[in-house]
UniProtKB/TrEMBL annotation:
One of its GO terms (molecular function) is hydrolase activity. Keywords: Hydrolase. It comes from the Bacteria. One of its GO terms (cellular component) is outer membrane-bounded periplasmic space. It comes from uncultured sulfur-oxidizing bacterium. GO terms for biological process: nucleotide catabolic process. This is Sulfate thioesterase/sulfate thiohydrolase. The lineage of its organism: Bacteria, environmental samples. PANTHER family: 5'-NUCLEOTIDASE-RELATED, SULFUR OXIDATION PROTEIN SOXB.
Length: 153
């Protein structure tokens, strides 16, 4: 669905939820007898919460943008919203119980990822190193110091 920000880069896209368009798409999918409607969103948790309350028929919203790591899914009507955080710190596992073309239940687990105990994939690590190599000196240049920890918050 063409909804994006910023619109100046993609003038054919529009801003906001566009709930009428979303509802039409959900209705179209439901008309094809799909078992579930899952929305992968980068609108942010607050906008996804509004969308779930305004658009009927979405079973699951996988929410991004606001970097929220919510331990349990949030229920809005019959829609579950899952927010997994940011920067690969967590992975959400969601098991959906689908019966007769409807979601009958779910299980969710927010799994912390401890990168210091995971062995990197050698091929991927080599690819990343090769991409960074031309910028290595620039990336390692010290440009300042601080007396306090910078958390990024």
């Amino acid at each position: 669905m063409p909804i994006a920000n910023p619109g100046w880069m993609f003038p054919e896209y529009s801003f906001g939820i566009r709930e009428e368009r979303m509802q039409a798409m959900v209705n179209e999918l439901r008309g094809k007898n799909v078992d579930l409607v899952v929305c992968l969103s980068h609108n942010g948790f607050d906008v996804d919460h509004k969308m779930a309350s305004r658009v009927q028929g979405i079973d699951v919203i996988l929410s991004g943008h606001t970097h929220d790591a919510i331990p349990e899914p949030v229920l809005v009507g019959d829609t579950i919203i899952i927010a997994t955080g940011s920067n690969g710190k967590f992975v959400s596992r969601v098991d959906l119980d689908v019966q007769n073309g409807r979601m009958a239940g779910f299980r969710h687990k927010l799994i912390p990822i401890f990168s210091d105990v995971i062995t990197p994939d050698a091929e991927m690590a080599a690819l990343i190193d090769a991409e960074r190599e031309p910028f290595k000196a620039e990336l390692e240049e010290q440009i300042g110091t601080t007396e306090m920890v910078l958390t990024g918050a």
